[in-house]
Design brief:
heterodimer, A: about 120 residues, mainly beta, 4-stranded antiparallel sheet, B: about 110 residues, 6-stranded mixed sheet, 5-stranded antiparallel sheet, 11 strands, globular
Chain lengths: ~120, ~110
């Protein structure tokens, strides 16, 4: 397994509260990604990072922010959680330096419930 | 909007049969193509990657790519009950677009 951990693995929170999810890698890969997975929608990209302090938006970025201050850590923040953000969140990593080095490997996921 | 389409299934096959999973994509400039397997409650795990037209074989798995038809498929030979899972097709470079997955059921 790729060295990717996510914390917490499960979280229940209330509408309006801030939430931060952490992704940590030990592979020294340049690219890191946050996805959410919902029934009927598959995996959708929220934000991604292509280096320390270099991030960009994905398909469903509204309501989310990210930060990457170290190569190994990528944080996803929900500033004010809403029920529509109840989902399973996956972090992924890749070398991303060439077509042949673009395979993404996934972390174990975080199940977030917003009440 | 870049799209990846998969039949949601379920695709039911008996043990020992060949399972054929299909995927079409809209971005003609796509360079990388991946198949992931996802068991219920687990994270996606890579099965195959393919980058050029033709077939690529790895054990019981064969990925097929036809860029002219914008079509990628995954064949699973000698299907086993342990292959029962959802199979995700992903297309792109650095920013992948995923299909919604095909659920495969292999019956003993």
């Amino acid at each position: 397994d790729a060295g990717i951990t996510q914390s917490p693995r499960h979280k229940v929170t209330e509408t309006g509260t801030p939430v931060t999810l952490r992704c940590h890698q030990t592979e020294n890969h340049r690219y890191m990604y946050w996805y959410r997975q919902d029934p009927g929608h598959g995996l959708r990209l929220i934000h991604y990072s292509y280096g320390v302090k270099d991030t960009d938006k994905g398909e469903v970025s509204d309501g989310y922010s990210v930060s990457r201050s170290k190569t190994e850590d990528f944080l996803l923040t929900l500033e004010s959680a809403t029920s529509s953000q109840t989902s399973v969140y996956f972090c992924a990593i890749s070398e991303g330096t060439s077509v042949m080095a673009d395979t993404q490997y996934f972390g174990p996921g975080t199940r977030l419930t917003v009440l | 909007q870049k799209e990846v389409e998969q039949n949601s299934g379920p695709l039911s096959v008996p043990e020992g049969a060949i399972a054929s999973l299909n995927c079409t994509y809209s971005d003609r400039g796509s360079q990388s193509f991946f198949w992931y397997r996802q068991y219920s409650g687990k994270s996606p795990e890579l099965i195959m990657s393919i980058y050029s037209n033709g077939d690529k074989e790895d054990g019981r798995f064969t990925a097929q790519l036809n860029k002219a038809s914008q079509y990628v498929s995954l064949l699973i030979r000698d299907s086993q009950p342990s292959d029962s899972a959802t199979y995700l097709c992903a297309v792109g470079f650095q920013k992948l677009v995923f299909g919604t997955g095909t659920r495969l059921l292999v019956s003993p």
